[in-house]
Amino acid sequence: MKFSFSDYSTENFYDEMFNSDGQIRRGYEILKNKFEGLTSQDLLGRQQAAEHSMLSMGITFNVYFEGEGTERTMPIDIIPRIITGAEWAHLEKGLKQRIKALNMFIHDVYNDQKILNDDVVPRDLIESSQSFLRACMGIKPPKGIWCHITGTDLIRGEDGTFMVLEDNLRCPSGVSYMLENRELSKQIFPEVLASTGVRPVSDYGTRLLEMLQYLSDRPNPTVAVLTPGIYNSAYFEHSYLAQQMGVELVDARDLVVSDGYVKMRTTKGFEIVDVIYRRLDDTFLDPLAFNPKSMLGVPGIFEVFKNGKVALANAPGTGVADDKVIYAYVPRIIEYYLGEEAIIPNVKTYICREKEDFDYVLENIEQLVVKEANEAGGYGMLIGPKAPPEEHELFRQKIRDNPRNYIAQPTISLSRVPCMIEDHAEGRHVDLRPYILYGEDIHVIPGGLTRVALRKGSLVVNSSQGGGGKDTWVLY
């Protein structure tokens, strides 16, 4: 039996492939024709082949629940998400604007603090942030860049407008799934890719390496990827990116500070490391400078960084712009530094530390999404319309106890994209995480990771919460 989208229903959500009248949206025509030229059994077989490939390639992540670690494959859906060239041009411009302003903000916070003196962002908000590192005061990182690798989460609302949901500037993950989803698309639908005109993402490893090398003034700088170790949830990605760049993957046992440099143990002795792409949080980086109990960091590495003898990407302290309460101020940050309005708007956000917003959130918590300032991965979050009354009350009390630590947003029905559910297509909610590299210039990878809430009716796209991934095709 031929596969068909004829029974597909948008169910009154904004759908990326079909409009509310069931008409195909621009960019999806070729995809629809190609899919409907195949049988349902054929597509089901390709879906199963993709899942088997993910397993055989070891594309996994770790989930920790009640103290037990579980390794899972990243679920993949084979129907790609398509973004037109015009849409992408708008997103690219907006993301470059946002990252440029955030980099200026981080530098200002740790140096002149003009934005705090002018009370555009409240000083006490910064000083109470868990991610504000006083040890970074006065630091000027190589080439003046703090946020070298960013994964910014975007969503479409009910009217199809793209909005920024949150910024990820510490150790954004998921880019390996973006790359492998594309490789699987090449294997499963080579004829569709060839006829659709999709921009490549396969040069990410090359661009990442070039960006990292740019941070050093030494000729032919040595680059390494620093991982917390094999038990980290994103260890597959750490090893994958090191392999893609052709550089060493190291942990704390492989590095030592000596003679004012960071050196790596090799079979030929110690070798100076010029640039480190670190995949562990700031406070675990150096037990001498931050958390003295850290067994994952390198003693003395922060002092070498301050002295300009090693570049760290992302720079320590970058997480201050990752705070979900700071997110609410980003439009003001963009206007302050660049004199421009934000090209991509934020989601409407209520700041619980502000009295009017505090009262509104407590009164309307059943309709809101409440987020903890420094949590990620779908944790520390309340989705009001789907939560029971006792959970509403629990979060009301949390907000009363520590209003600074919470924001709230309207519950937005994320846009949907068709997914293969058994042998037919059903709509599932998605977001988009494009990856931005900041080196000699700012480059936005054309696509990113589309995360999909595979559980019917779910709005949580995080892989640790039952979400999966889709290939994202940006058209020329």
UniProtKB/TrEMBL annotation:
Domain Circularly permuted ATP-grasp type: 80-453
Pfam families reported for this sequence: CP_ATPgrasp_2
Cross-referenced InterPro entries: ATP-dep_Glu-Cys_Ligase-2, CP_ATPgrasp_2, UCP005522
Tree of life domain: Bacteria
Residue runs in coiled coils: none
PANTHER family: BLR5612 PROTEIN (PTHR34595), SLL1039 PROTEIN (PTHR34595:SF7)
Name of this protein: Circularly permuted type 2 ATP-grasp protein
Natural source organism: Salmonirosea aquatica
